[in-house]
Amino acid sequence: MIDGFSFLQQELLIPILLGGLLVFVAFVFKEWKTRNRGRLVLNTIVAFLTVLALVFIVLEPTQEVKMQNKQGLLLTEGFSDNQKDSLEAIFKGIQPVEYNSKKSVRKALDSLTSVIIIGNGVEQFDFYAFDSIPTSYVPNEIPSGITQLNFTDQLVLGDELRVKGMYSKPKLSTQLLLQDSRGNGLDSISFEESLDHDFSLKTVPKASGNFVYQLAEKDSAGNLLASNPLPITIREKEPVSILIVNNFPTFETKYLKNFLADAGYEVTVRSQLTKGKYKFEYFNTKASPVYQFTEESLNQFDVVLVDTETYFNFRKSIKNRFENSIRENGLGLFIQPSDLLFNLGANTSYFNFKRDGSNEIQLPNTNITVEKYPFRFNAAFAVNSINANEPGNLSYYKQLGLGRVATTTLLNSYQLLLKGEEQAYTKIWTQILDKIVKQKAIAVEWQSQTEFPKIGAPFNFALRTGLEELSVKNTEGNRVPLLQNSTVPFKYSGTTYPKKKGWNWLKIEADSTLQFSYYVYKDKDWESLSASKNRAANAKQFGTEIKENRTVMVNRPISLLLFYILFLLGVGWLWLSPKLSTQS
Predict the structure, then answer these.
(1) What is the pTM of this model?
(2) Which residue ranges traverse the bilayer (predicted)?
């Protein structure tokens, strides 16, 4: 096409040109047969111009025009009329555009030279549409409600569910309640000030399955202001087999084995009585004495707890079997500390310590103090804190192949039980065991990449699997296309568009037991939280400073009046010409 010119009906260009050419050829053929009447050349020229005018009328020609000052004001949910009026007064001629996350906004942006977004902002999956246009975000005032939230949506039965967050600008005496799926109150907090308030609610679920807890807001009279869902998946605790090996019975082992037995762990305890003679105890498991530490016997267990003297007095061949089971089979090893451990070199004990002279420490977020050895861990590569939030880092583990070795500077932890601090004791040992327990082989590992799935909006997910034949179906039974990672072939990603609220699922077509459940929220769920997150994401993506306009080339339609006049004159002449020839 000629530079700067185009057609609105570009897709019809070839058929219309061919049709026009066919009409013109037919006219020339007709005129040639009656050429003795004269005016052949004139009529041919007029016919060409008439057909050309008709072609242009159908194709609707356009001309490129430079646009340098056509700003758009994108109105997203939650925008303020005052904010809109103020910006329209500052930027004369700014064009308001309403944003709908379920419709494409790209077409409306094509003719704009810059955009100012107001309200809660555009959805993150629409950010790509603004890549080529200068865009600014002017946030509105943060509304009252929950603006930060943190909770674990995947729990093991017996774990504590803790819901933390921030409530912005609460009304006086507003109450926040954590409710189970039947609406029973589990924990609550009242706000006595109108300032931003951090909150923390907790409970221990009693059953496994997919549940929808609720975070309800009520006023001082008990009237419900809002209620938002907390979807939780609670799995049954898988049996964990533990072997405790001691030179002699200790108070630490006595209380620890009772705790593990009450918590449902499968525990075997071997205590040495005299040389070559042992006492065995069994909890939640059948009697199966362990006399020799072969790789076969070690593979029966997920974790081995052994005191320092016993482990480091093993023959080299036995230690090699332990390390091989750790590296190759993922066995977890916990070394119960003693003074000897802190005097061994890092090459021998797996860890490096520094003396700190402190014999006790206060547990985080409590007034509870515990005894410890006067040492601290000297962190190094491949050594990790079991609880990163723990002051002093009481417990560390070291990765060895597929498994982990761990120990602690904690001394006589059973004294917590004697003081009545069962919860603190449980938390310490549960964290340690959860970090080092042998990991079960998982055929498919799913991961949600969309925080708040909504009906009709894209839900992004990822999965890891070694399966060669892989096909994923969604709740509606439709196959979901997967994108395989080019550098890590066992990693895949996909996107689906859920059609119903509540629990949805994805599953491997060849094995329906390999299923992943996710919860789809209603549009009005977690409005304050979604708005807060969207505002932060928009401010980070677009910035809050007004940007300079770009130059946009816009195709403007050319007036068709000239072509209509030309067409009518041409048709009129072609109608009149034969009559003039007859009269002459």
Answers:
(1) 0.66
(2) 12-29, 41-59, 558-576
